[in-house]
Target: Branched-chain amino acid transport system II carrier protein
Amino acid sequence: MGNGVFVKESKTTRIGMSRMQLLVLGGMLFSMFFGAGNLILPPLLGLQAGADAVPATAGFLIAGIGLPVLGIIAVALVGDIRQLAGRVHPLFASVFIALVYLTIGPFLAIPRTSTTAYEMIKPLVPGGDSFVLAAGFSVVFFAVAFFLALRPGMLSRILGRFSAPALIVLIALVVGSAIFGGLSDVPAARPPYDGNAASEGFLAGYQTMDLLAALCFGIVVASNVKEQGVTDPKKVTGAISVAGIVAGVLMAAVYCGLSFVGLSMAPAMPDAANGAEILAASANMHFGEVGSVIVAAIFLLACLNVCTGLISCCAEYFSEVCPRIPLPAWAGAFAVFSCAVSLVGLDSILAFSAPLLGALYPPAIAMMVMGLAHGACDKFARMWPWVVLSTAATSVVIALRDAFAPDAWIFLDALPGADMGLGWICIAAIAAIAGIVHSSIEKKRA
Model:
């Protein structure tokens, strides 16, 4: 090597990769899940959960870390998301995948990058609450993101290499300051965490959208493992599992730390509406105005980098599905649409995301579980449409009720676990039995 320093290669483990390779893969998974937009969720959870922050955070970790890692393993086992969703029905696969890309793209995730960045710089700008300033910021933000999305070259790579490490250092400083500052008072849990804190934390974890992203990009992780010379399916699964543990530990440390920041800020700002507001206030409290400027700048770069990647990724997918429309046109359309959505503000985007993700996550979880057990499920092929479609129908009905008539009672509220937002599990279990019976009848007729 150029500097004359040689590193002895780690011994290969039982799963065909060295410890160093597994650590690198774990870092890759961490970087996939480590988005600036996700960082605004745990502080608000910690602030609102109060004395019940521990069970609420535990539920959040299961949905925000456990499900995505299992999702990547499920995709690795069956091939890719098309093969996974295609077991239900080809039309369902097309619609579901499109909805997933739109959700982790222009519907939610892309607009959230702009609003998160603006929430961080708003306290530093005179008249920051002005709609005109917010709109002007969004226009400039998405214009730059669109420009970079069409030129994924040196500038984008520099942004990515700088923003992620800087964001990690920033989080460590903010969390460390909050820990050393201690807790002056721990308030009682507030809605929605004053009832079933763990299940509400689990539902809050939907807003990371990482399970949806994992189903789409899990094939990339599996391909990376195979490029290291590991081709045996069991070893590929083992490598991803170990790497998932590495990434999960890192993400858990980040999420727990940020939840503590929110808990520590509860006495000072009990009426905070979003996590970006909490992080900005914490940075100002511990580091002053100069620190707040640095925090805002780092978040701005990180959000811009994430936004650029999402626009490029979504445009690439839809240009493949509909090649008559070129990639730049898709990218421009997504940038303009996302800019328009961002004008409603971060609080409105987060409120809108709950029912949409409530509709998408249950069928995604059902497919993930069946993908992990695809060997058994494939023996009863009718299980796939029965379980996933019934789960999807149930979650859509509940999501529509939550969006338009949240106080209305529907028959699905009588299901076990419905009060925790998990009534669809009962429907999935019944559908699984129906799918087995249906498959058995077809086999006998054949």
